Every structure is written in structure tokens, then in C-alpha cells.
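ugh finaly. both done.
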Amino acid sequence: MSEKVDEVNVDELKADKTKVNMCPSCGGKMNFDPEMGMLKCQYCNTTKEIDYQQGETVENPFKEAISEGVRSWSEDDIQTVVCKNCGAQIVFDKYSRAQFCNYCGSSHVSVQAPEQIIPPGYVVPFAVSEKKAGEAFKLWIGKRWFAPNKLKSSFKNNRLLGTYIPYWTFDTQTFNRYTAERGDYYYVTKTRTVNGKTETYQERHTRWTSVSGNYERFFDDVLVSASNKVDTHILNKVDDFNLGGLVSYKPDFLSGFFAEKYSVPLDEGWTEGKSIVDQTLSNEITRRIGGDEVRFLNISTHYDDIMFKHILLPVWISSYLFGEKSYNFMINGQTGAVQGAYPKSWIKITLAIIAGLIAVGLIYILISSQ
């Protein structure tokens, strides 16, 4: 059972002083500004560009990473806290302090000792500000017809957290040998007697033919979430990221934001990535075979040159209480797309059902009167 969520002041959390990005003008804290794409002092508005590279990304050999181990992410002036309630591990700049967990809201968090993990190589920086994210949610919830009117008019969000979600991307060249049976429909004209009358009809049959062949396919940037803490049902609906926006990772992008340390290891990530590859191959080879049906499809696949990247993608995460129940939602920090759960008004649902029944009744009366 989840423990009670403690109320905290997010503004106070974000105002914690950091030694990582000090303003050269006033000495205040500089946070990453999504709309400007640079660091901005929250006190005097002084800006500072981030020195990063954008362009062709470097892929990492999968087998070598599994066998050789990796350096610690803690070398990048960040620290990690672990939630004792849900187990989430949150990364942020070294001198800030976390008061509660981004995912379950628990205040039972503690600093974790550094450990050997794969640091992120690239990040899609936030492009949607907190203000724009809140406006996007209000617009989205306003279009949910079954949402209670009270929620639309009274919603106030003070726990909107910009969080970088960890992902793996995988590349691989596949060589495939397949066998199957292709089914093609044909029709035979037959006769039958119905109520004393003879009539003809078409009877469908299937002609099966054995097929086999070779198929090559290169997969680029198969995207796999490296988090098992977020609501994957919602996350999968907002993860339409443009990976062309990837830039080299810099701790500066975390200033004023959070990042989750991956909870899905690299090898488990590839297991999920491989299943995505296999399903794609099955669909493409089935279309390649053609016909009306395909059965007994068997594919033998060789995965060559498996490469990976560890990347961070931006998501605004929050929840709200309505009727003593918590509802989660997420906003894509690159595009502003919104997805989430929301309460349904039974009054509106009942009215919709009644309106539907009335419409069906009117149609029936019109048809009967003709």
C-alpha cells in the first residue's frame, strides 16, 4: 500500500542554491530555459549559452558494453536519490536537494552512493516551458467531454515536474531466412436449394503454396524506455519524439530539471528492442510474401553489429487529486503533446447514452414510416 503523499513547496525545491551554474552577474542560480535553449538566471535574467555538439551521433558497441563495464555517471556533477517507497532513482545537479519522489510523491528519499552505470550520451533538451506545459494540459482537459466541469474550472497544478526519462536506442543489421505457406483465395460456383428454390453461390477455398526466401533489414534507433517507474501506458502515447533534436549530453541541461536513472539494464533493454525488431520483421516479411493469408511463418534472424545509445528525453510529469483520487498525466517536453488519466462524469455519460438511444429511436421511426 502506498504511503500518504506529503505536500511540498515545489518553488522552494527549484530555488535551492547550486554551485554548478552560478550567474556571472549576480551569483544567483541559473536554470535551463526551454524556450531560449540556454541557461538563464532566475533573479536577474542574465543568459549563458551551453557548449554542446549537435550532428551525427556516436553509437556504442552493445557486446563490449556488456562485457567491459562502464564509468560512473557521478563524474558529471550530479547526484542520485532513491525513493524508499517506489524504488525510483532520480538524478539532478549535485548541490540541489530532493524533497519528494517525482513518481509517487513520497518524501522518503535518500541520497544514494555513486555506482557504475552507463552515463547518457545524448539528450533532447526541453523545448516546452513549465508555463506552456500547464497551458497545454488545461487545453487538453478542456476537450475531454466526459470530464467533470468542476475539474475544468478548478484545476490548479503546482507539482508539474520536468523530468528526463531514460531511453535506450538500438541499431542492428539483420539477415533473415524465412519459410511459410502462402494462401490464395479462389472461388467455386455451387448450387443449393433454399425453401424449394435452387440458387447458386460462391464457395471460397484457399490454395496453399510453400514459400521461402532471404530478407535483409537495417534497424536504426529502435527506441526502448529504460524506466520501469513511469506509467508506460501514458508514456507510450506521448513518446513521439524527434530524435533529430538530440544533442550531446551536458549536466547544464539538468539545471532546474530532474532525470531518472535507468531502471531497465542495457541487456534487458535489448531484449525489448529485439522483440520490436522481430515483430517488425514478421509484419514486413508477411507483406512481402503477399497472398490472402500466411501461415506457419518461421524466421531465422542473425543480428549483426548491435549498437546502442543511452539518451534522455524530456517529459513533464504530474498528477492531481479529484474526488480523493489521484490521476497521472504527462506532457511531451519537446512537442507539448498531452496524455493522461482523468475522471469521468457519470451524469455526462448517462446523458450521452440517453441521447444515443433517442437518436436510434428516431431513425427507427423514420425507417418504419417509409
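ok and the 2nd:
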Amino acid sequence: MRREELAENLIPLIGKLYRDHGVVTSIHGHHLINLSATGVIAAHDRAADMGHPAIALEQTASVLEALLAAAPAPSSIDIARVAAAVAASEADVLSALFAEIPDTEAGSTDVVLYGFGRIGRLLARILIAQAGNGHGLRLRAIVVRRGSGNDLDKRASLLLRDSVHGPFSGSVSVDHEANVLIANGVRVQVIYSDDPAATDYTSYGIHDAVVVDNTGRWRDEEGLMQHLRSPGVSRVLLTAPGKTPLKNIVHGINDDTIHSTDRILSAASCTTNAITPVLKALDDAYGVARGHVETVHSFTNDQNLIDNFHKGDRRGRSAVLNMVITETGAAKAVAKALPQLEGKLTGSSIRVPTPDVSLAILNLTLQRAVTRDEVNDYLRRVSLHSPLRQQIDYVESPEIVSTDFVGSHRAGIVDGLATVADGVNLTLYVWYDNEYGYSCQVVRVLERMAGIHPIVIPARERVLAETLPA
């Protein structure tokens, strides 16, 4: 009961920091915003379960109170890492850390979701949860084709209820007269259209918006350029692999190549986002000579529930009754973010009867020999301390299965107990929530495009390959 009381006392501090100061708090990368008391406790316990240094609720309270007293500017602050820094030093660590936050006026960027399927609805949930004090990314509208007479009510219901990710955290209502969904007080215009070039967004008060195309209908520059013909749109982000010459962005890997002049970008695929950060870390430390990526992937909406015609090979067979061998371009797509791996990777995929969370098996030949303990320790430290902390997580548990990763914010999670190392031959198992984890990566790319990603405190240091055992 004592822990529940402590957790309940933390909730208003977390909320006030977020609403009044735009401060996103987390425990080893796991957000604390909008959690219940049991959720706050679980976030602290999860850190220890995942091999991260433990943090007591009392320590979190001390850091949160100090943060409120300092009244910092918008930022992303890892409470566990700040607490560890405070415990390790007698100096005024908090003042030094908060001094890193620039005193700048927070801006905002309008976002339009074109398509409202699995990824579109999860993006909406994330953007609404991060609405905070009105700065940052602002979800202004969704664009869909009208499906029925009660279309608006059905869209609201799909946002409110999700069989995989659970209920929406808050309330969703409908303003039928204005064609608006109201989620936790955020008004989201619903626009009915099947032509990406035909909507005047400025008539809805939307300007310089980023359109996130979730339909997958257009994957080339010519097709996506249609969005830019609609007044009020300045940029487009595709949530699928983009065809050359579009930049395929994996946040944490090549998001530094995003420029203000880029008008159309791709956020690549869920699998590419899951494996590229791990491959980057391994290539930096050991060198990747060649490899094969096999993905055991949950079924998707493009498959049939029961046997029926499908233009793709094998995908016409029932998704819920069969394992289905199919192709994946993820291995080749890695080279679009990591050019040094061009031509070194092959890939294939097996669709399996689960609705979410997938597993990538990396069979690699490295340029130097490794041991299981060495590579696991390195990837664990990468997940804790490196600039890839948002992308890579690490777990060691003999009981963990796919559903344990539903809702993970990370692009991929290395299963350390499954690692196999034999000289230069390495096999890694990387779990990933191909819906939510990918959606988090998309939001990070959006923040980078908008230039509003909050400063990270403490800064993420690089885990150097030179620190590894010879």
C-alpha cells in the first residue's frame, strides 16, 4: 500500500510538468505521462526486469519536485538517469543538467493523418497523448473515404477501442455538425476525400502542415506529390518504404540527413526500423561481413481472414490459420539508411497467426569473433546509454513471449537469452511491436521534420566500440 500511495503522489507532479512546462518524463526511456498509479509502479519495476539499474519511487519524487522548482523549458528527461547522476555525485548535478535546456519559445506544427487504419489510429493516440500545453506536434485532421452513414461514430469507436492495444486512455466524443472527433479535449477535424490534391486545409485553419500518408497507396515521389497541391500542406511523410529517390528515414540512424528543403520523406518499414539500429551497433563494434534476416511477422490487413483471391502469392490463404512464406524488402532497405551494408544482407519473411508483435532473426557473419556474453553486454549498454536508447531495448527473461512487447516504445528489443555466438557467426533475436513501436519511430521523424524534438536530459553518450574487450 505504501508504494501505491507514493505512486499516486507522483501523478500530479508528472502531469504538471507536462502541461505547464512541456517536460516529458520517463524511466529508462519508458514514459510516465498519463499512467495510473499501478502503471507508474510497473514502469519502475519494468526497469529492473529489463536489466536496468533500479530506481525507488522516493528517488523519482525528489527529482520531480526539483524539476518543478527549476521550471525547465520543454525537454525529455529520464528520471532514472538523473537520479543515478545525483546519487553518484555530491555536486549540484540537477542545476548543471537543467542548465543544458535552452530558454526558447516552443513552437507547434500542424499534422494531418491521411488514412486512419492501424498505424493512423496509433499515431493519433500518441499525438493526442502528447498534446500537452498545445506546443509541439498538433493533430489537426484525419482524411478518410466515407465508409457508411454512421462513419464518424465508427471512427470514434475504433479510436476508443482496440483489441490489441486496449482502450484509449481518456474520452472520445463526436461533434456531428462539425465532423469533428473530440479526444481528451483535442478537436480533430474529419475530412472525407479520396483525392490527395483536392482538400483546402486552410479552410479548416490548418497551415504548413505535415501530411502523414498511412494508406500505402502511393510510394513514389510523383504519387505523394499530390498532397502538396492541397493548400495548407508543406511536407509529406510516408509510413511505408519509399521508392528511390525518396529518403527512407530510420530515426536514430539517418534522421540527421533530414533538411528543411525535404518536402517528401519515408519512415521506411516497421522491420527496417527494428533491425537497422541493432545492425548499426553491431557494425560499429564488430563489422558485419554478411547476413540473412528472417522475420516472423504478425499478419497484416492486406491478408485474407479466410482463403480468397489475392494478387500476391500465398497471401490469399487464411492469415489466421496458416504460416505464410512471403517476401520482405527490409534487408535490402537497411542499406538506404546504412549504405555500408549495401549488398551484404538477404531477407525473407513468414507471416504467422498473431495480430501484433514480430520477431527478426539476424544470422550474421562478423568481421571478428565474439562471445555470447560479450555481444550481449555490449548491446545491453547500448540500450542503456547510447544515442540509440530510443531505438534499442534489451531483455533477459526465460518467461517472455511476444505479447509482453505489445506497446513497446522501442523500435526493437534484443532477446539476450536467445543470442547464439560461435566465433564470427552470430544469431540475434530482435522482438518488435510492428504497430506501436513503429508508430513511435514515425512520431520521432515528425518531430525531426518539424524541428521540435525536445532536448534530452541527460544527454545520450555514445558506447564506444573501443571500450569492448579485444
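summary for the 2nd one i guess: The chain has a mean pLDDT of 89.
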